[in-house]
């Protein structure tokens, strides 16, 4: 190959070296990378040298203390020049979001049923495989089960996730929390010494009605948010609006009505079963979702100048 | 462990924490100095009380009763420290401080005060004396730090005495909880059984056992954290001294 041809072929190409963020050791040297290559492609190339470190596990940065680079960032748009130095950090084993939700939701689903059917070694020997005389107990089981089936359906068919994965440690921690709590509340609701609600059928029926409405509301919001992502595409950012569906009219008042409905569902479940552990779970969920809602609300407010002033993060007019 | 610099929580979270922390205002500093001086004095009172009672009785037994009231007062008073973190005049984590103070308050009220029978145990003396020495050093450390006149001796004591006092205190605490177990089980103290209107139950006896078990992961973490702090604080000073 003549000198000019070599020069023409390699003009504009970038040399990429990947260093360990902590030790600054060179991990990988990529010669003659196309300037319009994306970080995602760099990650794939890196993966070729390190079998264990699949792209989702790689955290690449231009500055070891700076922000992580996105997979769709293009090399020539970054402040690199002809030689790019990229710092690498191992994020640890990752789990895809769908797997995350399956693990988090299948657990409570089956665990509750174990308690409902009074599997052996939970309650006393004579109570094994007996059933409660109270209809509210069966109703509670139906509600809890439907809640998690709905969540599983949403996880598989409705949600579109912006990040691909979650760290393994987080998923273990989350699962322990959800599974342990559902076991704890299922234990009391299905207990042979369970006491039905003080105000009887009236309390149960009103609570059930609100529960169903909140579940429908929550589902409507998830569908609405999903459609928003679908229409907009990754670059066009819009914030959610109320639609023809009356359940979405809560968007007039709150930024995250899905969380509002979720709290409502659990609160009504607490009233329906009149069970303190359920109320405690509702309270903790409320705190967590309020934190998320406030974060989301702030993001929306900052990103969109015309964001409605009336909207609160999670509770209309209050919080 | 330190948290984001106070008063700047909203903006500084994503930035690298500045090396120089913005100190509390003059009024807050004055208040904190008074607070720390009062606490130092309080724990000194407890220390003196213990020594005097020992000299009067001639034995280590039953010294708890002689310092019961100041112990309760000053240990419970430490709850204010959670408020200090929450308000931002002290650069520490609310959660961490809350956890530490609550565990002390729990031992003081929910175990030692509530279960009369353990008050005569020697394990109580063990943790009370560990706490007393630790707190006197800690509060004087804070006082001197706030006044920007920290004698090396106090700093050294704070980061060295814990090596013995931590395990001593933990041993005393665990032994006391263990001693309380049979009485709690017998009387059903602080326990709720089924059936009841709110479908809830709580077994204090099991709770105490779980508390004891929780020391296994927690104590080493705290201990090694203090050891790392010790290395950072004391060795850094020595480097500085040799320059």
From TrEMBL, chain A:
Coiled-coil zones: none
Domain named TECR-like N-terminal: residues: 15-90
GO MF term list: very-long-chain enoyl-CoA reductase activity
Enzyme Commission numbers on file: 1.3.1.93
Keyword Signal applies: no
Catalyzed reactions: (2E,7Z,10Z,13Z,16Z)-docosapentaenoyl-CoA + NADPH + H(+) = (7Z,10Z,13Z,16Z)-docosatetraenoyl-CoA + NADP(+); octadecanoyl-CoA + NADP(+) = (2E)-octadecenoyl-CoA + NADPH + H(+); (2E)-hexadecenoyl-CoA + NADPH + H(+) = hexadecanoyl-CoA + NADP(+); (2E,7Z,10Z,13Z,16Z,19Z)-docosahexaenoyl-CoA + NADPH + H(+) = (7Z,10Z,13Z,16Z,19Z)-docosapentaenoyl-CoA + NADP(+)
Compartments in which it is found: Endoplasmic reticulum membrane
InterPro entries: 3-oxo-5_a-steroid_4-DH_C, SRD5A/TECR, TECR-like_N, Ubiquitin-like_domsf
Main EC class the enzyme belongs to: oxidoreductase
Main subcellular location: endoplasmic reticulum
Membrane-related topology note: Multi-pass membrane protein
Lineage: superkingdom: Eukaryota
Gene3D superfamilies linked to this entry: Phosphatidylinositol 3-kinase Catalytic Subunit, Chain A, domain 1 (3.10.20.90)
Domain 3-oxo-5-alpha-steroid 4-dehydrogenase C-terminal: 165-318
Gene Ontology cellular-component terms listed: endoplasmic reticulum membrane
Keyword Phosphoprotein: yes
GO terms of biological process kind: very long-chain fatty acid biosynthetic process
Pathway: Lipid metabolism; sphingolipid metabolism; Lipid metabolism; fatty acid biosynthesis; Sphingolipid metabolism
Bilayer-spanning residue ranges: 95-117, 176-194, 206-225, 246-261, 267-292
PROSITE patterns: S5A_REDUCTASE
Keyword annotations: Acetylation, Endoplasmic reticulum, Fatty acid biosynthesis, Fatty acid metabolism, Lipid biosynthesis, Lipid metabolism, Membrane, NADP, Oxidoreductase, Phosphoprotein, Transmembrane, Transmembrane helix
Known function: Involved in both the production of very long-chain fatty acids for sphingolipid synthesis and the degradation of the sphingosine moiety in sphingolipids through the sphingosine 1-phosphate metabolic pathway. Catalyzes the last of the four reactions of the long-chain fatty acids elongation cycle. This endoplasmic reticulum-bound enzymatic process, allows the addition of 2 carbons to the chain of long- and very long-chain fatty acids/VLCFAs per cycle.
Annotated family: Belongs to the steroid 5-alpha reductase family.
Name of the protein described by the UniProt record: Very-long-chain enoyl-CoA reductase
Record gene name: LOC112215531
TrEMBL record, chain B:
Reaction(s) catalysed (UniProt annotation): (3R)-hydroxyhexadecanoyl-CoA = (2E)-hexadecenoyl-CoA + H2O; a very-long-chain (3R)-3-hydroxyacyl-CoA = a very-long-chain (2E)-enoyl-CoA + H2O
Residue spans crossing the bilayer: 32-55, 76-103, 159-184, 204-224
Domain of life: Eukaryota
Keywords: Endoplasmic reticulum, Fatty acid biosynthesis, Fatty acid metabolism, Lipid biosynthesis, Lipid metabolism, Lyase, Membrane, Transmembrane, Transmembrane helix
Signal sequence extent: none
One cellular-component annotation, GO: endoplasmic reticulum membrane
Membrane-related topology note: Multi-pass membrane protein
GO biological process, one term: sphingolipid biosynthetic process
Pfam families in alphabetical order: PTPLA
Subcellular location: Endoplasmic reticulum membrane; Membrane
Record-listed E.C. numbers: 4.2.1.134
The protein's annotated pathway: Lipid metabolism; fatty acid biosynthesis
Annotated GO MF terms: very-long-chain (3R)-3-hydroxyacyl-CoA dehydratase activity
Region feature (Disordered): 1-20
Family per similarity comment: Belongs to the very long-chain fatty acids dehydratase HACD family.
Function of the protein: Catalyzes the third of the four reactions of the long-chain fatty acids elongation cycle. This endoplasmic reticulum-bound enzymatic process, allows the addition of two carbons to the chain of long- and very long-chain fatty acids/VLCFAs per cycle. This enzyme catalyzes the dehydration of the 3-hydroxyacyl-CoA intermediate into trans-2,3-enoyl-CoA, within each cycle of fatty acid elongation. Thereby, it participates to the production of VLCFAs of different chain lengths that are involved in multiple biological processes as precursors of membrane lipids and lipid mediators.
Protein's UniProt name: Very-long-chain (3R)-3-hydroxyacyl-CoA dehydratase
Organism: Oncorhynchus tshawytscha (Chinook salmon)
Gene coding for it: HACD2
